[in-house]
Amino acid sequence: MSIPAAPRATSLDPVQLPDWRWQCFLDEAVAALQPLGPEPYPIDPQFLSREGVTGSKAKPVPVATATWACQTEKFRQVRAACVSAGSAASVLNFVINPRTCYDLPFFGADLVTLPNGHLLALDLQPVDRGDRLHTEAVWPELLTIFERWKQALPDGGPIPEEAQPYFSPGFLWTRIPLGAEGDALIDAVIRPAFQEYLQMYLKLEASASPVSAERSEQLLAGQKRYTRYRAEKDPARGMLSRFYGSEWTEAYIHDVLFDLESQSV
Ligand code: DBV
Q1: How many CA atoms within 13 Å lie on the side-chain side of 227?
Q2: pLDDT number for residue 130
Q3: Which residue's alpha carbon is nearest to atom 21 within ligand 1?
């Protein structure tokens, strides 16, 4: 049996989960955010860290979930949902929600290891791809980064039609096998791609200046649509409900992971 991890007192306390595939990704992202002077983001202690057991009575598998989060001048909420469940699952879902007084996309990463393979998604996600004023100007630069990494990866397959408005043309999306081959691709492609997407995003942050109140209202409406969609369709719902029950899971999804509508912005 594993030794319970020390409870985390604030959302900025380091996350360290046993056997977690994505530890170095989170560590690098947290380091990259340091120049922005991250402040804690209020999160109920029951969601800062949680442990449980999955698997069968004969073969129990310990599971652990932690949430790292912060806020900065231009970011309303930066949050990482971290799940380690041995060979059953290893997940880093990382989203940066900009304040709507800045015309910035979301940063979105979904790094998921399941028994049948890795499922990896990375994007600077627009609130609405049809909003031409929004992030279209940054796509050419994003595409040069995207093209370089995409050619090294198998395609992830189709994405639901209703999700299309929320992806940029630089959506990096792949499924790769477990084992040495997949590990090599993660080291050689996914890790540097994650860094480059994040660095580009932080460059956009640095140059963003406040927009009009009217524009900000539009962006808020767009962010709410996106957040509602993500909360409704969260692919982790089944897994988290198995680990921790549906009451905890629904509260985690709506009040932590995709909390825009439960905030009084
Ligand atoms: N996905 C989340 C959150 C997770 C999470 C908050 C806390 O949005 C994990 C964890 N994603 C997660 C898990 C699975 C997926 C799948 C556990 C596997 C579900 C399963 O097969 O049981 C990208 N993630 C997926 C899928 C897509 C994405 C397209 C496949 C969906 C399916 O097969 O039903 N998530 C999606 C996406 C972004 C994202 C594009 C943004 C970059 O975060």
Answers
A1: 24
A2: 83
A3: 235
Closest atom of ligand 1 to CA, residue 108? 42
Distance 213 CA to ligand 1 centre (A): 33
Domain ranges of the chain: 23-240
What distance in angstroms lies between residue 215's CA and the mean position of ligand 1's atoms?
30
Q: How far is the CA of 71 from the centre of ligand 1 (A)?
A: 23
Tokens representing residue 222 in the block? 């767009």
Report residue 206: phi and psi, to 5°.
-60, -35
User: Which residue owns the Cα nearest ligand 1 atom 10?
Assistant: 236
Residue 8 tokens, joined:
């985390």
* CA–CA separation, 62 and 19 (whole Å): 11
Using alpha carbons only, what angle is made at residue 261 by residues 197 and 34, rounded to the nearest 5 degrees?
35
**Domain topology for 23-240:** oxygen-dependent coproporphyrinogen oxidase (3.40.1500)
Secondary structure string (H, E, C) spanning 173-235: EEEECCCHHHHHHHHHHHHHHHHHHHHHHHHHHHHCCCCCHHHHHHHHHHHHHHHHHHHHHCC
Which atom of ligand 1 lies at the shortest distance from residue 121's CA? 42
> Which pLDDT tens digit goes with each residue over 136-158?
888 999 999 999 999 999 999 99
Residues with CB under 6 Å of ligand 1 are: 81, 83, 91, 93, 108-110, 112, 119, 121, 123, 159, 234-236, 238-239, 257
Protein residue whose Cα sits closest to atom 20 of ligand 1: 235
Bridge partners, 155 (sequence order): none
pTM for the structure as a whole: 0.96
Distance CA(117)–CA(179), nearest Å, equals: 9
